[in-house]
Amino acid sequence: MIPEDHPRYRSLVAREHLARCAREGIVVPEGLAAHGRGEAFDYLIGEKTSPAALSAERIAAALLLPASHPVISVNGNTAALAAGLLADLQDASGAAVEVNLFHRTAGRVEKITRLLEDHGVRVLSGVPERLLPLSHDRALCLKDGIGTADVVLVPLEDGDRCQALCAMKKTVIAIDLNPLSRTARSADLTIVDELTRALPAITRFCRELDREEALALSARFDNRELLREAVCEIIRRLEHALD
Ligand code: ATP
Ligand code: MG
After folding, report:
1. Model confidence band, residue 56 (pLDDT cutoffs 50, 70, 90)
2. Ligand 2 centre from 215 Cα, in Å?
3. Half-sphere exposure of 199 (CA within 13 A, CB side)
4. pLDDT above 90 for 137
């Protein structure tokens, strides 16, 4: 039992939950390491949504809303941490949800699909094909999903796959706490925020924005500037860390 008054209660609960999901085969051990890197960056950004991240979340909604075939790519960590939040975002954005795994087995895809469906997510099904310009199973995705998507939201994506999606001329939105990762630097739009803070914010903006506002926002944004602001926020916090 984790005491609710522990100063790191949320973090400890998330760890315990991910460890349980790892034992169930939803999260892979590598996913636990990835979560740790994310936590470290969350510490550096103060475990809160920065103004730049909030802008990026608004722009993400503006990209998803007018898209003709938006797809959310879901991996094990994302499903474990945010299945219910994904159902809300799917409802608000109209995006399709595809399970797409770095460490792919049919059994894991099935378990993750079941977890998502239990939380009300409609999950695309079908036979995956090697459509991404990558070696091995990382190239696999669904033709009716990521294969033909115009906008892809990739929470917690690997840099290689993010670059492959960009090379296919898709508009890629990443959620990544590390503003220096290859994913963060190659995505068209990077949300430097924790997954469970970012998803509800995007959902809220999907419900708030009208079409005209969305088109205006999506037409002009500068991802390098958003990333620079994220890095500056870390620098500012470090400069005053021991004050
Ligand atoms: P890249 O492959 O993009 O160069 P990487 O290899 O360092 O980066 P991966 O292990 O491929 O990173 O993916 C994990 C990424 O997800 C990390 O950058 C980490 O910061 C981020 N991350 C982990 N957990 C969360 C979370 N809950 N919310 C947001 N980001 C997260
Ligand atoms: Mg990586």
Report:
1. very high
2. 32
3. 23
4. no
What's the CA gap between 22 and 24, in Å, rounded? 5
Its CATH architecture, for the domain 51-239, is: 3-Layer(aba) Sandwich (3.40)
Q: Which helix (H) or strand (E) holds 130?
A: strand 129-130
The residue whose CB lies within 8 Å of the most ligand 1 atoms, and thus the one to mutate among 13, 178, 191, 192, is: 178
pLDDT tens-digit series, residues 194-240? 999 999 999 999 999 999 999 999 999 999 999 999 999 999 999 99
Sign of CA dihedral 164, 87, 76, 174: positive
Of the bound ligands, which one is closest to the alpha carbon of residue 82? Answer: 1
The one-letter code for the residue type at 199 is L
Whether 84 is in the pocket of ligand 1, judged by its Cβ within 6 Å, is no
pLDDT reading at 58 higher than 90? yes
Is a pLDDT exceeding 90 seen at residue 169? Answer: yes
Is there a contact between 182 and 164 (Cβ–Cβ < 8 Å)?
Answer: no
2 is written with which tokens?
A: 């984790």
**Ligand 2 is a single-atom ion; what residues have CB below 5 A from it?**
158-159
